[in-house]
Design goal:
A seven-stranded mixed sheet has the order 3-2-1-4-5-7-6. The protein has helices at about 10-25, 35-50, 50-55, 60-75, 95, 110-120, 140-150, 170-180, 195-210, 240-245, 255, and strands spanning about 80-85, 105-110, 130-135, 155-160, 185-195, 235-240, 275-280. The protein has a single domain, classed as 3-Layer(aba) Sandwich (Rossmann fold), CATH 3.40.50.150. It has about 280 residues and is an alpha/beta fold. Helix 4 (about 60-75) crosses helix 10 (about 240-245). Helix content is about 45%, strand content about 15%.
Amino acid sequence: MTDPLIRSISDTARWVAVYRARETERPDAVFRDPYARALAGERGEQIARALPMAERAEWSFIARTYAFDRFLAKEIAAGADLVVNLAAGLDARPYRMELPPSLRWVEVDLPEILEYKESVLAGATPACALERVPLDLSNHDARRGLFRDLGKRSTRAIVITEGLLIYLMADEVGALAQDLLGPPSFDRWIVDITSPGLLAMLNEQMGELVRQAGAPYLFAPPEGPAFFDRYGWQVLSVRSLLKTAASLKRLPVFLRLVSMLPETTPAGSRPWAGVCLLGRQA
């Protein structure tokens, strides 16, 4: 490969789609994404093959996808009428999950990745009403305007930010959290976070690659999920990726004993990652 291995943040979406494709092809798959292989493309395969350190962590991407799926399914069953997927990347949930046709799903991301995704999925039909909004989320005024508009057309919305926050500074995450409180109908927010210990490990193993792509790993709050309390969001539930992967029988042998140990958050210097369901504070 003559180009940098990871040319932009969009390449990470192709790479992660490879792991969803591999899980789908297992006879005991915990989820199925029949579009992942096409979305990943050859570029995704090249990146995955060239990153042996990431290959060893494939279990964490499977656990993260599964945890987001479970939280989403529960909230949709409880009456959510809108899902807002920020930095949606190559996520195919509107096509692969069982969803009520009345549900509205809005994907927000940069124009290039949405155009690529739309071309790959041109022949597929989503299970619900799907809208794509090309937008740079770093444009605060534009995103607030979008949130206001979506909030007016919803009674109970879920926001998801899978794989996004790690690329933001803490103050940027806080600003996003406050913007999401603007529309009263934005009731739930599903996020994934890492500990400072895991962030240090990721930066040691892959930091230079993502920095070259202009997307360094940044966010790992020392206080863990409690970070969101000061911005008006309360933690309703947390799923550890390690524990989730263990329950799914996806952990490599060397981590199985570790998974039996009790976990506490914040994890601090210990490597830890999880998916959190947040709700608006009363």
